[in-house]
Amino acid sequence: MAVKEVLGKYTKEQVKKAAQIKALFFDVDGVLTDGGIIYDETGTETKRFNVKDGYIISHLKKAGILVGIITGRESKLVSNRAAELKLDFCHQGIMDKYSVFEKLVEFHKLKRKQVAYIGDDINDLKVLQNCGLSACPADAVSYIKTRVDVVTEARGGAGVAREVSDLILAAQGFLEKILKQ
After folding, report:
1. What is the pLDDT of residues 122-153, one digit of tens each?
2. Are 81 and 67 in contact (CB under 8 A)?
3. Where in the sequence is the domain holding 53, given as residue range(s)?
4. pLDDT at 1 over 80
5. What DSSP line would sit under the chain, residue for residue?
6. Would you say the pTM of this structure is higher than 0.90?
7. What phi and psi values does residue 136 have, to the nearest 5 degrees?
8. Number of folded domains in the chain?
9. For residue 11, what is the domain's CATH number?
């Protein structure tokens, strides 16, 4: 029943696109976090990540889906989170995300239609417009929301990657297997 609930929220076209995904790339600030950056009096940066996003990544990887980060900022916290989740890659300080996207597609012998991307702002737009399944959080700016395949119910940092991952896993028949384990 849970798989039907997940897939029931999406159109046939969205499910069809999700069924072809072999890689999921995402931005960090505003996607894996709420976009806020907290600095304490010593200048130490803090970010808050959602455990539900992190948990599903191991299931994506077991399903053979490549998972990684392309983000504009650089942060030791992001490096630590990527290592903890055993992501396939973590590219930080990237001003031209599309160029990195293209190199990753080529390096991993993928087709653009096989890559899902989650982003929330202007610097994500070119990737969002050229990948197979594009998604953004509910609180992304309006002109991004009108240009993606999926606008999640979740806001940035509140399970956005989990929502898109569940769609991909359900569309490919893996979610049902995960739930039966």
Report:
1. 999 999 999 999 999 999 999 999 999 999 99
2. no
3. 2-180
4. no
5. -HHHHHHTTS-HHHHHHHHT--EEEE-STTTTS-S--EE-TT--EE----HHHHHHHHHHHHTT-EEEEE-SS--HHHHHHHHHTT-SEEE-S-S-HHHHHHHHHHHTT--GGGEEEE--SGGGHHHHHHSSEEEE-TTS-HHHHTTSSEE-SSPTTSSHHHHHHHHHHHHTTHHHHHHH-
6. yes
7. -145, 160
8. 1
9. 3.40.50.1000
